[in-house]
Amino acid sequence: MPMPAVEEVRFASDELEVVVLPGLGCRLHRLRAFGTDLLRTPPDPAVHADDPFFWGAYVMAPWTNRATAKPMVVADRTVDLPANFPDGTAIHGQVFLAPWRRTDAGGFAVERAGAGWPWAYSMTADVSVDGPSLRLRYRLHNASDAPMPAGIGLHPWWVRPVEVTLAARAVHPRNGDVAAEHVAASGSWALDGRQPRRGLDATWLDIDPAEVRLGWPEAGISATLRATADGEGPHVAVATPDDPNAVAVEPVTHHPWALDRRARRLSGGIRLLEPGRSLLLELELAVRRAR
Questions:
Q1: pLDDT tens digits, residue range 224-270?
Q2: What predicted TM-score, i.e. pTM, was given to this entire model?
Q3: 3-state secondary structure of 42
Q4: What are the counts of helices (DSSP H) followed by strands (DSSP E) for the chain?
Q5: Residue 61 has what DSSP assignment?
Q6: How many C-beta neighbours within 10 Å does residue 10 have?
Q7: CA dist., res. 12 & res. 278, Å (int)
Q8: With contact defined as beta carbons under 8 Å apart, do 103 and 127 qualify?
Q9: Check: CATH 2.70.98.10 for 9-289?
Q10: What CA–CA distance (Å, rounded) separates 279 from 129?
Q11: Residue 263: helix, strand or coil by DSSP?
Q12: Where are the domains of the chain?
């Protein structure tokens, strides 16, 4: 039986083509530079619905990375998130597959509540392409009457082989381990323009300058991903599994396990957003032909 049609919204210039799927989490289905796909893109957009975590680039909010899938008290309220990942955790928030709507201003929006998250919130996304630059603006708004834990991230799967460069002071070496200690981002932990080694699942902290340089030497394409966030961050999570054959380089606004860290009163806990306030993450990806 054929999969149902999925709405596709296209943004394009001579250099870039970007396809957004509002009904499937406002995710990026395709990002093509100079005719070359840079994201791991499925042949049919509907594939995202069945396999949401390993294609394209999806929005993570109101938290990113993992959280415990059992009741815990955060900011005086009980959070009881359902597990949604094979390791038994609640991963990457609630909006990655939620249907977003078009706004009068030409952006996208979603309202959420429930499913174990005791705060009401909304999100907006603005997408634009101008020549060789893609701009993404994500805003998370606390619509409840109490302080709410708040985090935003974007989870792109970049096609291999890709070279990664960033400057960080520290790294959380194991995203799957809430108790892992931060270490210096030097030596084997430096991301210095080579292809990242296989088996990474870590988060680089305190990125300065707040940018990541990406390179696809075989395609003759390079890109700079710049990030601006309110308050903490941005940080960058990187995952290099054997399957899929892609590399995740994810700008995020908080440490891994930040919801649990807030509940346990550990350092690196997720920030609290006051009622009526918003958290903003802005990203710009500028592509160019590499020499």
A1: 999 999 877 799 999 999 999 999 999 999 999 999 999 999 889 99
A2: 0.96
A3: coil
A4: 2, 25
A5: B
A6: 11
A7: 29
A8: no
A9: yes
A10: 23
A11: helix
A12: 9-289
